[in-house]
């Protein structure tokens, strides 16, 4: 046991001592692939699962509660985080997660990280490094350990750069500054813990594109993010299509049910419980007669209906 403890201690010391020589500031493609094995689709250049632009677009229109329900049924029980201050509460945001973890800085850790940043040709303060990696459809997601004063991860200058690269905004378990300047960036949005006039101090990036924690949720790079006024749902990439299509189908059912109730064709009891074969047939015919109401492709709908238990 003592030999094992000594071996582990030596290994830990070796890893820390060689940070600047061996460990990148960001997770490598192999590491990202290791904890996203269930994703079988395309990946971004940095190795993150790349949920399609179509699914990202459609996700903005689905109900947060419906998405949460699908994830709950799949065994993902820690995917929602609420209690945010939002720059534009009525403007939903969806995108692919680029994750960042910040830590309180201390010289013996911060200095090797900054030296490694120089080796990797990263410029500026560490809070700007993730911005250089953003691509369209990404969301900059950061664990800023809830710091408000001196925890402002961006202001309006960095906000402009973020929106120019991602056409999206930010989710920070931390704060931002220059609220008026950020509000002036048309299309930019942010879910944060607070606003403060101070500038960032005593914080350093510890890892980019590593699993990070936002509230009670673990977020992986490449997750599909749905942020609305109620809060945020973090959707594992491999479940993105299932969540979106399920949510769209539930929305279609609700739209059809509300229509038939207004028409007086069925009773509330018939619509609000398991549908009989007559209602199911009526619903499927309504879908055929109203293709513009259907957001998913015919193939996605057919595949979904094969396994649907109603």
Automatic annotation (TrEMBL):
Substrate binds at residues 155-158, 177. The keyword ATP-binding does not apply. Residues 1-22 form the signal peptide. Keywords: Magnesium, Metal-binding, Signal. This is RraA family protein. It comes from Arundinibacter roseus. It holds the Pfam family RraA-like. Its cofactor is Mg(2+). Mg(2+) binds at residue 178. GO terms for molecular function: metal ion binding. The keyword Signal applies.
């Amino acid at each position: 046991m003592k030999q094992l403890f000594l071996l582990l201690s030596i290994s830990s010391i070796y890893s820390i001592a060689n940070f600047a020589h061996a460990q990148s500031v960001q997770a490598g493609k192999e590491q990202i692939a290791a904890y996203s094995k269930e994703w079988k689709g395309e990946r971004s250049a940095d190795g993150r699962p790349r949920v399609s632009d179509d699914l990202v677009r459609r996700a903005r229109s689905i109900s947060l509660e419906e998405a949460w329900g699908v994830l709950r049924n799949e065994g993902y029980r820690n995917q929602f985080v609420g209690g945010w201050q939002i720059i534009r509460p009525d403007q939903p945001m969806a995108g692919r997660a680029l994750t960042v973890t910040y830590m309180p800085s201390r010289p013996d850790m911060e200095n090797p990280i900054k030296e490694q940043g120089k080796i990797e040709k990263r410029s500026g303060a560490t809070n700007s490094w993730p911005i250089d990696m953003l691509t369209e459809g990404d969301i900059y997601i950061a664990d800023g350990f809830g710091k408000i004063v001196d925890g402002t991860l961006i202001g309006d200058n960095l906000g402009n750069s973020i929106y120019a690269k991602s056409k999206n905004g930010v989710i920070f378990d931390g704060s931002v500054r220059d609220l008026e300047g950020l509000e002036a960036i048309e299309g930019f949005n942010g879910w944060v813990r607070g606003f403060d006039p101070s500038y960032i101090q005593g914080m350093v990036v510890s890892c980019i594109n590593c699993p990070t924690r936002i509230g009670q949720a673990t977020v992986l790079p490449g997750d599909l993010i749905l942020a609305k006024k109620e809060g945020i749902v973090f959707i594992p990439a491999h479940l993105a299509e299932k969540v979106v299509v399920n949510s769209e189908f539930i929305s279609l059912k609700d739209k059809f049910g509300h229509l038939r109730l207004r028409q007086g064709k069925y009773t509330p009891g018939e619509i609000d419980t398991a549908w009989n074969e007559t209602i199911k047939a009526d619903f499927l015919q309504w879908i055929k007669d109203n293709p513009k109401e259907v957001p998913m492709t015919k193939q996605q709908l057919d595949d979904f209906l094969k396994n649907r238990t109603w």
